[in-house]
Amino acid sequence: MRTKILGERIKRKEDPRLIRGGAHYVDDLKLDGMLYMTFVRSVYAHAKIKSINDAAARSVHGVVDVLRGRDLEGKLGNVPCAAGLEGLKIPDHPCLAPDEVRYVGEPIVAIVARDRYIAEDAADKVEIEYGPLPVVVNPEKALEKDSPLVHSKFADNVAFVAKLEGGDWKLVENDKSLKLIKQRFINQRLAPASMETRGVIASYSSGEDALTVWSSTQIPHLLKTQLAVMTGVDEARCRVITPEVGGAFGSKLNVYAEEGVASFASKKLGKPVKWIEGRRENMQATIHGRDQINDLEVYVKSDGVVAGLRCRIIADLGAYHQLLTPAIPTLTALMILGCYNIPNVWVETIGVFTNKMATDAYRGAGRPEATYIIERAMDLVANELNLDPAEVRQRNFPSPKDFPLTLATGVDYDTANYQKTLKKVLKASGYSRLRKEQERLRKKGKYLGIGLSTYVEICAMGPSSRMPAGGWEFGMVRVEPTAKVTVYTGTSPHGQGEETSFAQIVAEELGIPFDNVTVYHGDTSVVQHGIGTFGSRTTAVGGAAIFGAVQKLKKKMARFAAFKLKVKPGELIFDGGKLQTADGSKSIPFGEVVEAAYYARQLPPGVEPGLTEQMVFEPPNYTFPFGAHVAVVEVDGETGEVQLRNYYCVDDCGRILNPLLVDGQVHGGLAQGIGQALWEDHVYDENGQLITGTLMDYTLPKAHHFPWFETSNTETRTPVNPLGVKGVGEAGTIGSTPAIVNAVVDALKPFGVRHLDMPLKPEKIWRAMKQAAAQA
Amino acid sequence: MKIEGTYMVSAPRQTVWEHLLNPDTLAKSLPGCEKLEPQPDGSYHAEMKVGIAAVKGTYHGRVEILDPVPHERFRMKVEGQGTGGFLKGEGTLTLLGDGSETLIGYSGEAQVGGVIAGVGQRLVQAAARQIVQQFFQAFSKRLA
Fold first, then answer.
1. Does the structure show a pLDDT above 50 at A492?
2. Region A491-511: what's the mean pLDDT?
3. How would DSSP label each residue in B2-51?
4. Short-list A504, A508, A443, A514, CA closest to A484
5. Count of beta carbons in the 10 Å neighbourhood of residue A556
6. What is the pLDDT of residues A741-766, one digit of tens each?
7. Distances (CA, A) of A356 to A328, A362, A423, A675
8. Which of A192, A730, A87 has its CA nearest to residue A461?
9. Which CATH number is associated with domain B2-143?
10. A69, A208, A297, A320: least surrounded by Cβ within 10 Å?
11. What's the pLDDT score for residue B2?
């Protein structure tokens, strides 16, 4: 019998060091002679910089240097944007604003000092004289003819317009039997708010002309390339090291100004320079998520089957493009049909500049918006036609036999069985019983709400032909001379747990103990190539590369073993620390094969010594995980407060390698998705001042807000990668937001409420109930 | 942010008027005011220490008195900047009364930016009200 490691609920290798405080983050690292950097940031949303007086800051004892935008001109490249869209306007984005600021928090001056206290004190002494300019905060106002311009070099604030059309829209418009349902949705701005803020140490060595950068990032390899371009240091002499990353959620899938300025400062001063982001800076100047206005129209037949969907997406991009800013809302358009085979679609996406921080990838990145639109739409259809929301969904699902399926959006869905997940979650939640309970409670003046969401997401990013900068991933496996195994992956994690899951893949394949496998990541000098961790790609793309490398390695080991055993290499099975023939008659210990490969005294013909194999996996398609969620809420009729009573979810992320990791991803994702539905809102006032600048003002979900999540799975494998896995990092976030809003709106049905925009704070619900009472 | 209210002081209008336009009285009455110096253009240069929520900082800026109607009203424009960001405001002060008491009415708009906006927004209004209260209390003591 083969040792079973894959698919088992194995505890994470990462956890002991994290729990015991033995892990090392950027801020834990101290280098000899290290200097500390801090930034003076704009207090205006839009202003000319009339003058900067840094004399007092320079005179502070311990200040080593003060840098301004003009000091970087021609010496440090701009903050890069990798998104390529037709007609995209890309404004210059210098690392320090030289003459004009366009959002509150934009860095203007960098102070380098002997320690952080001195740097912060000196920053307070920098006097900047601003000439305030007109501000535009609302993206719809930014589209008006007489709106102030965020970038005066452009004729308007439109960064791009992208259209997506499929099917025959004329047919829909001419069919008078169809019912038109319209709704505007606001997908509010969010703060990613990872527990560890951003941080960087840059260390330039003039002797070797070499730049080493430690950064809390999701993309060390891409960062290395970009820093080489920005600083002019030969890429071969650039190295990025990513130690432990304490959360990111997409916000560290970026190249930030601060990483550039730290590198520049270290090169200029010949000393290591450290910058650790404060929480207030993190709220202001780390990318934000979401921020879309969606005007939706659905054309529906009398039986609830949707014939056409039209949507206008206004995406608030903020003032500048970060790495993928304009690309994110295009994912909304791509996934707007959800898991319904709606034959006709028309989507227009307008990316708009405003005087705010850039939006970019935040857990789900464009897909939660799409799921919210389509899942709210399904409930609106159900409400309009007086059908059960579960029934409406059933009527619009494609059959499992229809896959692979190309939708009207042109997207090719791999495999699915939406009926199965929905059926399972309805059973788990006792859906029909809940409906009866709801009836009973309504008669007593109590408001129970039941919300459904059946989502599909686009993951495992992705085929290189459709990605901004390559979608492949690198993996390498080496059996060491002691028979321990080292795995190298380009997907540098920030909580994904791949030191565990990748070790499971390798241990299972080689038939060796799980503890004998160590996974390395996040150092560009150790791991030769990499793209990074985002878009639920770690296992489906990074894991597939590891799996491919291990197959090559097995072939080679089998040749050494077969040579010794005098059998054919294809006859050998790896199990129980041995390589043996199928009938077990001949075998050789794993360690002896390793010795043969390294001592190399007798090599099989044409085989090189050593046991290292690598693979770059290029995914032929994305994957499309899906699921069905049910939220049960109670709304207090007096106060409008929402109590989340139960949460049930059935997620299908393809084959499951470790149920514990899947559960962990789903739990965290749910917390963030529910956070958007009920509490989170990153707010700028009309002058462009960020008024939710601290965690006192921005509500993050906490453990006490939640019931126990009842999670379960179905497993529909994908042919897109050899592991059959699809990805689960964003599923919880994508599936949960509409489930909660659908539940709250369902609870408010007796008040005639048809829709409420997020976050569903008690005050908003209370007002809706009062208004209904006043109209009655 | 709107700031408005009234304050009754026990002094005739003329006295109140004179003191309101006396930089020395103002400087001593304004909480945290460290400097209020008349400038050649008729404005004042001010330096103030203000703490709102966790944000304590020194602000310096300009105070201008505009459109004065003696013993009745004047407009005031304030622009300050400091470690916690900036504050800007414009308002009108009116004096009412014909005996030994004067009712001072004030009404204006203020805007804050930077850290004070991001950290103290919920508390700015309350803090502004408190500063105004403290000012009038100190001011009426000086009149007495």
1. yes
2. 96
3. EEEEEEEESS-HHHHHHHHT-HHHHHHHSTTEEEEEE-TTS-EEEEEEEE
4. A514
5. 20
6. 999 999 999 999 999 999 999 999 99
7. 17, 16, 43, 22
8. A730
9. 3.30.530.20
10. A208
11. 86
Q: Residue A693 and residue B86: Cβ atoms within 8 Å?
A: no
**B49 in contact with chain A, both atoms CB, cutoff 8 A:** no
Which residues are within 8 A (CB) of A155 and not within 5 positions of it... i.e. 6 or more apart? none
Sign of CA dihedral A550, A551, A555, A558: positive
Residues A195-205 have pLDDT tens digits of: 999 999 999 99
Mean pLDDT of B74-78: 91
The three-state DSSP-derived secondary structure of A307-336 is EEEEEEEEEEEECCCCCCHHHHHHHHHHCC
Per-residue pLDDT reduced to its tens digit, A423-460: 999 999 999 999 999 999 999 999 999 999 999 999 99
Q: Does residue B82 carry a pLDDT above 80?
A: yes
Kindly report the backbone phi and psi dihedral angles of residue A267, in degrees, each rounded to the nearest multiple of 5, phi listed first.
-65, -40
CA-to-CA distance for A651 and A456, rounded, in angstroms? Answer: 10
Cβ-contact A692, A685 below 8 angstroms: no
Of the candidates B57, B85, B118, the beta carbon closest to that of A691 is on: B118
Q: Above 90 in pLDDT, residue A142? A: yes
Which domains are delineated in chain A?
A: 32-133+212-247+252-263 (3.90.1170.50), 289-461+621-775 (3.30.365.10), 472-617 (3.30.365.10)
Q: How many angstroms separate the CA atoms of A369 and A385, rounded? A: 24
How much is the average pLDDT of A78-95? 95
**pLDDT per residue over A343-363, tens digit each?**
999 999 999 999 999 999 999
* CB contact (8 A) between residue A43 and residue B114: yes
Q: Coil, strand, or helix at residue A399?
A: coil
Distance of CA A358 to the CA centre of its chain: 15
Structural contact between residues A488 and A502, judged by C-beta atoms closer than 8 angstroms? no
Element (H, E) at A280: helix A279-285
User: Which chain B residues are Cβ-neighbours of A357 within 8 angstroms?
Assistant: none
Helices A498-510 & A544-565 angle (0-180, nearest 10): 30
CB atoms within 10 A of CB A604: 16
Closest to A149 (Cα-Cα) out of A130, A132, A136: A136
ipTM of the complex: 0.85
Sort out which chain A residues have CB atoms less than 8 A from B112's CB and list them: 689
Q: Does B83 touch chain A (CB under 8 A)?
A: yes
Contacts (Cβ under 8 Å, ≥6 apart) of A585: none
String of DSSP letters for A171-216: HHHH-TTSEEEEEEEEEEEE----SS--EEEEEEETTTTEEEEEE-
Tens of pLDDT, residues B3-33 = 899 999 999 999 999 998 888 888 888 888 8
Closest CB from B57, B81, B121 relative to A697: B121
Chain B neighbors of A693, CB-CB under 8 A: 115, 117-119, 121
Long-range contacts of the stretch B72-79 (C-beta < 8 A, 24+): B72/B13, B74/B20, B74/B21, B76/B108, B78/B46, B78/B110
Q: What are the contacts of A299-302 at 24+ separation with CB within 8 A?
A: A299/A172, A299/A175, A299/A178, A299/A179, A299/A180, A299/A344, A300/A178, A300/A179, A300/A180, A300/A181, A300/A381, A300/A384, A300/A385, A301/A177, A301/A178, A301/A179, A302/A177, A302/A179, A302/A385
The helix (run of H) or strand (run of E) holding residue A292 is strand A289-300
Note the pTM of the prediction, 2 decimals: 0.95
CB of B113 within 8 Å of any CB in chain A? Answer: yes
Fill in the DSSP letter of residue A515: G
Chain B residues in contact with A692 by the CB 8 A cut-off are 118
Q: Answer yes or no: are the C-beta atoms of A211 and A233 closer than 8 Å.
A: yes
Hey, what are A493's tokens? Answer: 């994690």
User: Quick one: tokens of A126?
Assistant: 């920098």
